[in-house]
Amino acid sequence: MEQLTPTPPAVAEGAPPRPMRGRVSKFVIPEVIFGVGTLAEVGGAVRRVGGQRPLLVSDPGVLAAGWVERAMPYLADVRVECCLWHDLTPNPKDVEVGEAFASYVASGCDALLAIGGGSCIDLAKAVAILSGNGGRILDYEGIDRATSPIPPMVMVPTTGGSGSDVSQFCVVTDTKRHFKATIGGRALIPEISLTDPELLTTMSAELTAYTGIDALSHAIESAVSEACDFLSKGLAIAAIRGIVEHLPVAVEDPLDLGAREGMARASLQAGMAFTNALLGATHAIAHQIGGALDLPHGLLNAILLPHVMRFNAGTHAERYVDVAGALGIATDGLDAATAAERAVDRVEEFSRALGIPSGLHEIGVDPAEFDTFARNALRDAYIATNPRGVSEDDVRRICLAAY
Ligand SMILES: [Fe+2]
């Protein structure tokens, strides 16, 4: 992770004093194309980043929905010839990355194009890392471990939740050690993120709820993160408002294009916030449970989020006042602790109304594994920006409360 306020070099004796340097804000995102009908721009986007023969990463569900077929003429129009790769499962695995990379090399590809959810986008990023750096994908776990240039990437999200299309992270499951490895670095920010909200209309109600709550957890975790600044904060708060307004409608009526557009916008805002402000303990713990049991990422975040909020509010309640306001709570006259408590209650009610299970016991998580989850969560890249310091004991307590 980049140090936000580096130590200045020593000043030579007799030299004029340097001005004091305050906190530095830096903000990076891809070129963003957003709007209904923008899938038509996908060919031009690939061409613009120099791609002529991209590996097109998608999944069986997106293929069946017809979105890859819909994109093909726009690519052919500008003589972009794709090699399709769709042999992946939710939560991309290290072995799948290796297979996709072999296909990338064998097909003579020169760019990555993903049309799919977070798993497709993360797998495409992982292939790009191997293309530029060689080795095995898990060699790059951590921040800025991949140092050589990587091929250009164009990402077309279809789930409106992962934020991976704008982020500097990808998450890959380690199938031997059974946890999710977070790989980060500026090189992983795609060149172009292209969101056509119409592509979200073929998601099931369940997937809409899971990915939507994932976006909510991105927005809330980044809003209270240690690395949050004025650039990320506004986006995170706007994302929370958008999700509260649009997610219940999108779950109720998957074909409501207005709600889909609202959710796509909020997810984009949350993604831009978290790739710069990073996340916290909800994601750090969810990665461990998801890696061990191959459960949906958004579902785990939905169950853990209120418990992590309650834990954090014990020492940093003031960070949840704006979050509470964005969740629709009238915060005037409330002390920070009460505002934070109501924010937690509101998130729990919101999840219940969307049909999210109330505890880890409902989805087959074994408490005997909490020690392993606790040990591994402290290695996750996102634990460092959680507002409250987290110990293994704390993770065990959060898991028990969420059980
Ligand atoms: Fe997430």
List the helices and strands and how they pair.
Elements: E1 31-34, H1 42-48, E2 54-57, H2 60-65, H3 67-76, E3 83-85, H4 94-106, E4 111-116, H5 118-133, E5 142-143, E6 153-157, E7 169-174, E8 179-184, E9 192-195, H6 205-223, H7 230-252, H8 257-277, H9 281-293, H10 297-316, H11 321-326, H12 336-353, H13 370-377, H14 392-402
Parallel strand pairs: 1-9, 2-3, 2-4, 4-6, 5-8, 6-9
Antiparallel strand pairs: 7-8
What does this structure look like?
Helices cover 47% and strands 10% of the residues. With 403 residues, the chain is of the alpha/beta class. The chain has a 6-stranded parallel sheet, with helices on both faces. A hairpin with a 4-residue loop joins strand 7 and strand 8 (179-184). It is globular and about 60 Å long. The structure holds fe (ii) ion. Residues 214, 218, 283, 297, 301 line the site of fe (ii) ion (FE2).
Largest sheet: 6 strands, parallel
Count of extended strands: 9
State the CATH superfamily name of the largest domain. Answer: Dehydroquinate synthase-like - alpha domain
Distance N terminus to C terminus?
31 Å
Average pLDDT value?
Answer: 94
Strand content: 5-15%
- The ordered string of helix (H) and strand (E) elements is EHEHHEHEHEEEEEHHHHHHHHH
Properties at a glance:
Dehydroquinate synthase-like, alpha domain, six-stranded parallel sheet, 9 strands, binds fe (ii) ion, globular, 10% strand, single chain, alpha/beta, Rossmann fold
State the gist of this model.
The chain has 403 residues and is of the alpha/beta class.
